[in-house]
């Protein structure tokens, strides 16, 4: 059997998966929703654009369909947070959260499905456009605006003690058009690709919704009007926080200990890693070795010390010697930015990327950072 291009549809819940093998025009929830397009997929779910007919009106929604393996846990732990603390946080700033949930039966079992407002293209597309035009990453002012947007969302979440846990490039998206006629026209111009069948399963390829008005090289007065948002609420937590074993926290040092922890400051670490990736086009930390090897890379890149309170941790006790060939954070930035750009950005990153989570600046303090405030004005001020 040929390999699946995206999620492994043949693997069951017993294998740790159990995706819903859905197809275009398939109905969900007893015919209430009709699948229009596949938007994407991840380790625990796939995401679909659906339409809902009400008389002569057509509404569009995004439905996140969890694997059978992940559905029960999402129902008991994730859903209450989304319906409670995350929903309350939304009064401070707009971001996509669930409107409704239901269960759908598939060949592998029962799937939890979350219905939310549709969203559009990922910011990663602009990063690809920039690098294909010879740039290492996005312009600094675009990164500043993105950081400001993320901090605004994190501040709203933290008022409800919510840890986002997914401050990553793949979770930065643009709002899609809310005009149903425009969306219908967009879908007509860009129909879904033809469904393949592999091993008897319908294989539909992802096609994120398009809002192609944003360009990577726009001036700040236009970037300030972007409808950019932080999505990806599949791993949110409220106290007591505890790192998920299979989830990547951008190598946040506290999650690499033999007795790992996480918290609101972990989102700050992830934001620092994200900002570096956006401006350079590269990950700051690339080690895929043991937890101790990854901690060694972090220590050497940041030229920071391991907290005294961690010295008894078994992963810290076996830290390898310093690797003098590892390039520092400052040097990496200065390879792609001018001195005028690199100095203030490095100062900001140094407030996020501190090994000791207790020493990282808070989201509220970071909102007041001069480098961030430069992107917090309305478009008429640029």
TrEMBL record:
Keywords: ATP-binding, Kinase, Nucleotide-binding, Serine/threonine-protein kinase, Transferase. GO terms for biological process: regulation of mRNA processing; spliceosomal complex assembly. Gene3D superfamilies: Phosphorylase Kinase, domain 1, Transferase(Phosphotransferase) domain 1. It catalyses: L-threonyl-[protein] + ATP = O-phospho-L-threonyl-[protein] + ADP + H(+); L-seryl-[protein] + ATP = O-phospho-L-seryl-[protein] + ADP + H(+). Pfam families: Pkinase. GO terms for molecular function: ATP binding; protein serine/threonine kinase activity. It comes from the Eukaryota. One of its GO terms (cellular component) is cytoplasm. Signal peptide: none annotated. Residues 33-372 form the Protein kinase domain. It is an enzyme of class 2 (transferase). Its EC number is 2.7.11.1. This is non-specific serine/threonine protein kinase. It comes from Ephemerocybe angulata.
């Amino acid at each position: 059997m040929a390999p699946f291009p995206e999620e492994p549809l043949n693997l069951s819940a017993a294998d740790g998966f159990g995706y819903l093998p859905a197809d275009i025009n398939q109905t969900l929830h007893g015919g209430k929703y009709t699948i229009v397009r596949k938007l994407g997929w991840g380790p625990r779910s796939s995401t679909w654009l659906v339409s809902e007919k009400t008389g002569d009106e057509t509404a569009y929604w995004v439905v996140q369909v969890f694997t059978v393996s992940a559905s029960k846990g999402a129902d008991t732990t994730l859903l209450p947070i989304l319906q409670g603390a995350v929903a309350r946080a939304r009064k401070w700033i707009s971001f996509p959260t669930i409107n409704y949930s239901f269960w759908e039966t598939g060949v592998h079992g029962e799937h939890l499905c979350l219905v939310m407002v549709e969203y559009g293209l990922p910011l990663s597309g602009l990063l690809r456009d920039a690098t294909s035009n010879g740039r290492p990453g996005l312009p600094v002012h675009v990164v500043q605006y993105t950081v400001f947007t993320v901090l605004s969302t994190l501040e709203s979440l933290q008022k409800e003690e919510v840890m986002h846990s997914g401050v990553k490039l793949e979770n930065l998206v643009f709002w899609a058009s809310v005009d149903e006629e425009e969306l219908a026209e967009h879908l007509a111009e860009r129909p879904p690709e033809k469904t393949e069948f592999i091993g008897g399963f319908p294989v539909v390829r992802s096609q994120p919704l398009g809002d192609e008005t944003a360009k990577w090289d726009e001036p700040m007065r236009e970037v300030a009007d972007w409808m950019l948002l932080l999505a990806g609420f599949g791993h949110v937590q409220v106290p007591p926080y505890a790192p998920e074993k299979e989830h990547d926290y951008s190598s946040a040092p506290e999650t690499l200990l033999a007795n790992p922890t996480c918290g609101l400051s972990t989102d700050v670490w992830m934001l620092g890693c994200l900002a570096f990736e956006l401006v350079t086009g590269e990950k700051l930390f690339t080690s895929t070795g043991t937890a101790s090897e990854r901690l060694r890379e972090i220590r050497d890149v940041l030229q920071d010390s391991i907290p005294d309170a961690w010295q008894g941790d078994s992963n810290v006790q076996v830290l390898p010697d310093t690797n003098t060939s590892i390039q520092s954070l400052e040097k990496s930035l200065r390879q792609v930015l001018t001195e005028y750009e690199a100095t203030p950005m490095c100062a900001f990153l140094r407030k996020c990327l501190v090994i000791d989570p207790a020493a990282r600046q808070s989201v509220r303090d970071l909102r007041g950072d001069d480098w961030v405030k430069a992107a917090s004005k309305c478009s008429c001020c640029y």
